[in-house]
Amino acid sequence: MQGNVKQGTAGRALIAMSGGVDSSVAAMLLLQAGYECVGVTMKLFVNEDSGGDPNRPCCSLAGAADAARVCADLGIPHYVFDFTEEFRRDVMERFVTSYERGVTPSPCIDCNEFLKFGRLLERARQMGFDKVVTGHYAVIESPGAGGDGRFLLKRAADQTKDQTYFLYSMTQDQLAHACFPLGRLTKPEVRKLASEAGFTNAAKAESQDICFVTQGGYAEFIEHYRGEVAVPGFFVDGEGRKLGRHRGIVHYTIGQRKGLGIALGRPVFVKEIRPETNEVVLADEADVFTDRIVVSELNWIADNTEGTVPAVFSEVAIRYGATPALAKIEAGTDPSWVTVVFCAPVRAPAKGQAAVFYKGDTVLGGGRIRGVTAASAQNINKK
Fold first, then answer.
1. C-alpha atoms less than 13 angstroms from C-alpha of 333 in its C-beta half-sphere
2. What is the pTM of this model?
């Protein structure tokens, strides 16, 4: 396969390879495009240390072996970089601490920000590589497309696989040194390319869940990580009246109905989590809808004026896979936060999750949800 490819004429590319079909095809496409390629698997943690499955598709010993096998097929070097300390600090610890604070985390966003386009990009530069390449389904458009000399991040051709939600925090520098070869392909097309290339992982199952939560649920992982069982507390209603006992706040997320373990004669949902009193507030489903959220830790991609709101109206996604909802973005009293007012109420936005702003297929930017009413903005810097 490699014999007909002239290597190195387009630049040097470091390929982040998990052992899955997406990163394998990404490596093949960059090699065919004339890049000198090196495959790298990031050792983030060891599944077995958490009682996990060593054959899990992502972040496993089997995954590293699959990546090495594909690199051998392509005739390119393969290395393993040990980022376990950084991953534990910047992803796992943030994940656990968020749940302990009653906040819903976004570990995939943290992994992209701190590991793939943080630590790995730093290592790539040290080694003299031009690009960090991943199997993300997203499109990077070079300067000129936006008319202001900025790189743009756009939705993938395969809308069912689009991963721009997880990439909204990328900076202009990161976009300039990243490459997403699969952005204009569909998943079936990617599998077909892998099959035609003879990759043994062409039909490999995808990793759908949080990579380090290998067995049980996320609450069980948190208890294992901390080495202690979550402290039980009380379910309460909006007025603070006790409704029953809960198993610990890490077992619950905003909007949750199933698994509450309480019977009140009607469906109830988690509306709020109060870590300061160890209470979980339950309410009717209508009460978990809201028409406004406060968003901070902002990153604007498609605007070249820092500290301004680039669009009055935008489509806003409040969780991965959710259909973006039309909303008005209102600037706050300082540029560190905005209020998003939806044209129609949205269900169960959760503090800590990302709110990503779109204009058509273009990612304008995004941030973290820090409140669900305009009044919350007054205390934004205290949270």
1. 8
2. 0.90
Question: Which one from 37, 59, 179, 211 is the annotated catalytic residue?
Answer: 211
Q: Which residues contact 286 (CB under 8 A, 6 or more apart)?
A: none
Give the closest residue to 274 by CA, choosing from 238, 303, 243: 238
Instruction: Give the burial string for 303-325 (b: 16+ CB within 10 Å, else e).
Output: beeeeebbbeebbbbbbbeeebb
Helix, strand, or coil here: 271? strand
Give the end-to-end CA distance of the chain in Å, rounded to a whole number. Answer: 55
Q: Is 211 a catalytic residue?
A: yes
Place of tokens 């936006």: 146
Task: Note whether 115 and 92 are within 8 A (CB).
Answer: no
Amino acid (one-letter) located at 15: I
Give me the pLDDT at residue 105, please: 94
**Cβ contact 76:37 at 8 Å:** yes
CA atoms within 13 A on the CB side of 35: 23
Task: Give the chain's residues under pLDDT 70.
Answer: 1-8, 47-61, 144-147, 208-209, 304-311, 374-383
From 37, 59, 111, 179, active-site residue: 111
- State the fold for domain 231-283: SH3 type barrels. (2.30.30)
Q: If we measure between CA atoms, which residue out of 154, 137, 256 comes closest to residue 206?
A: 137
- CATH code matching the domain that covers 2-197, chosen among 1.20.1300.10, 3.40.50.620, 3.90.480.20, 3.40.710.10: 3.40.50.620
CATH class of 289-382: mainly beta
CATH 2.30.30.280 domain extents, the chain: 231-283
Residues of the chain with CATH 2.40.30.10: 289-382
Phi, psi of 184 (to 5 degrees): -105, 15
146-158: per-residue pLDDT in tens? 557 899 999 999 9
Q: What is the pLDDT of residues 67-116, one digit of tens each?
A: 999 999 999 999 999 999 999 999 999 999 999 999 999 999 999 999 99
Rounded distance, CA 203 to CA 376, Å? 47
Q: Is 59 a catalytic residue?
A: no
Strands 233-236 and 242-246: antiparallel
